[in-house]
Design goal:
Blueprint: H1 21-29, H2 32-35, E1 42-46, H3 58-64, E2 67-71, H4 75-84, E3 88-90, E4 93-94, E5 101-105, E6 113-114, H5 123-130, E7 135-141, H6 143-149, E8 155-161, H7 167-171, E9 180-187, H8 191-199, E10 202-208, E11 211-216
Parallel strand pairs: 1-2, 1-8, 2-3, 4-7, 8-9
Antiparallel strand pairs: 5-6, 5-7, 9-11, 10-11
């Protein structure tokens, strides 16, 4: 499979996102070549982090009239998002349960997240860092409860998911019958998550190192895959 099926990004590209997610959404999932720029869509950005820097959704909101939900448990990012973005902001750690208290690391920027053996911020890999880390207690919410509160549409255009090893935890009990995503980009999905998404109709159409890009099978015909055939791959393990 080629490295990408969309236009490579330059350093000063206004569509620059973390790993090409934004160009994937506009050029591949919504077929810019045939339909032009997709406007007035709805996104879910988890975790949104900085409102503009390497954001997967800022351009969509600012220039194309999209709206959606911005979720980040780090209070510093949440404050910046409220100041710099128009979409609804939810300051929670997303897990499979509501109302729990979890320990959450906030001193390492976009790499922050829930502490635990199954997550990136764990003792085995980051134990030395965690001795001096800034850690707070935050409340948990399920993604479904947040979408319900936000009155999100049942058909959502784009899910951006990057929560430092908690991706499966966030989606394992999600009601995919109530809410469907046209496309999604996920950092380092586990094999469990890939199998779950396949069962729910999400097809892997692009792989960028630790990220996998999906389009729901109902949207494949309208997308622009070119000569690329979707391929199921297991994301390599992350060791930091």
């Amino acid at each position: 499979m080629p490295d990408h099926i969309f236009t490579p990004e330059s350093k000063n590209d206004p569509l620059k996102s973390q790993k090409g997610q934004l160009r994937f959404v506009l050029e591949v999932a919504f077929n810019y070549a045939e339909n032009g720029l997709h406007r007035n869509g709805y996104f879910v950005d988890l975790a949104a982090a900085h409102p503009t820097y390497l954001s997967n959704t800022f351009f969509l909101e600012r220039h194309l009239g999209w709206r959606g939900v911005l979720i980040d448990a780090n209070p510093r990012f949440a404050e910046l998002l409220r100041e710099g973005r128009k979409s609804q902001v939810f300051e929670y750690a997303v897990t499979s349960s509501n109302g729990d208290n979890v320990r959450f690391r906030i001193d390492n920027g976009e790499l922050g997240g829930i502490l635990g053996d199954q997550f990136d911020n764990n003792q085995a890999i980051r134990g030395e860092q965690l001795q001096a880390a800034e850690i707070i207690n935050v409340k948990t919410r399920t993604l479904q409860s947040i979408l319900d509160e936000a009155s999100a549409p049942r058909l959502i255009d784009y899910l951006s998911l990057d929560i430092e090893g908690a991706e499966f935890e966030a989606l394992k009990d999600f009601d995919f019958c109530k809410y469907q995503f046209k496309c999604m980009t996920i950092e380092r999905p586990s094999l469990e998550l890939d199998l779950l998404l396949d069962e729910r109709g999400y097809i892997q159409v692009q792989h960028r190192l630790y990220d996998t890009f999906y389009i729901h099978k109902s949207e494949i015909a309208g997308s622009r895959l070119g000569n690329t055939s979707p391929q199921f791959l297991v994301t390599p393990s992350k060791d930091w």
